[in-house]
Amino acid sequence: MITRRSVTSMGKGVAVAAALTLLLTSCAGDAGSSAEGSGDAASFGDASIQLSWIKNTEFMGEFAADDAGYFTEAGFDSVDLIPGPASAEAGVISGNVDLGVGNAISTGTVIAEEGAPLKIIGATYQKNPFTILSLAGVGNIATLDDLTGKTIGVQASNQSLWDAFLKVNEIDPSTITVVPVEYDPTPLFNGEVDGWFAYLTNESIDAELAGLDPVNLPLADNGLPFVAETFTASEDAIANDREMLKALLVAEIKGWADAINDPTAAATLTVDTYGKDLGLTMEKETRQAEIQATDLVVSPDTEANGLFTISDALQKESVATLKAAGIDIDAATLFDMSLLAEVYEENPDLVAYSK
């Protein structure tokens, strides 16, 4: 069983601080060799994208883009998809990667607390995948009221998000017993706890495939909406390598459009090619691909405005969630949607991603 990292275990601390120091003292170089304009003659050389996790179906759009040659079409000689777990923020700050896949919580934290010169320029997940997972026969936590009197396993690195969840929903912490846990949900599956701080795209699928009848209480639907699988770029690249970043976004949009329109093919590509050495199973990867394609990546806003766009309302909701978690930042400091606006203005056909 592959367990999932937390939202805050990457993207903070010594690695980010060291990378920020490096950036500020040595003037990080250009994030790839961009060409003026965005015509057919554009050539950006090699580029790199830091993935936040292992090469599983979480990154099916990146794999589809690479396999279909969309990065090459966009003007890149190659695009290195670097597996995690790793900090998107540290990689981008240091100049080691051109784009990082992270989330609003981790990126917002390093911007607010360390002054990192970063922006989120798009989001794959319109809905974050965090959930309070229980089982129909153990806990059966389907509503906020069902939490009363329950024992919940919460990882230390997710404690601040758990606290924010209780705060925004005005739940008295004394009515719930919290047990410190790691990431393997076996204690839930064995009935040792009633609920588990989990991912819709990981532990919940494990429970489903084991026939354990999972019950989910998604944080995004219960007071804590925020974008995840976000694209993080440096302010320097946004200003000086703008066409290169836009070219990456164009290829990413095409890849993710293919993946969400054929999640089975995307899962097959992951299992057989990009994650072939990880022991992935078609059953789990296909379920993750389906959940992403139907529940997380697409929304009424993306249908109207295109993949990766983050509406003003969702930006405000994300910032409110960060505030509840003790992170003080505003939308203009965290997000820059201008690149995607230009991408869709220049490529209006990309808005209609559904075939």
UniProtKB/TrEMBL annotation:
Annotated SsuA/THI5-like domain residues: 56-266
Pathway: Cofactor biosynthesis; thiamine diphosphate biosynthesis
Keywords for the protein's UniProt record, in alphabetical order: Iron, Metal-binding, Pyridoxal phosphate, Signal, Thiamine biosynthesis, Transferase
Protein biosynthesis as UniProt keyword: no
Domain of life: Bacteria
GO biological process: thiamine biosynthetic process
Pfam families (alphabetical): NMT1
A Gene Ontology molecular function term of the record: metal ion binding
UniProt keyword annotation of Metal-binding present: yes
Signal peptide: 1-28
Reported function: Responsible for the formation of the pyrimidine heterocycle in the thiamine biosynthesis pathway. Catalyzes the formation of hydroxymethylpyrimidine phosphate (HMP-P) from histidine and pyridoxal phosphate (PLP). The protein uses PLP and the active site histidine to form HMP-P, generating an inactive enzyme. The enzyme can only undergo a single turnover, which suggests it is a suicide enzyme.
Protein name according to UniProt: Thiamine pyrimidine synthase
Organism lineage: Bacteria, Bacillati, Actinomycetota, Actinomycetes, Micrococcales
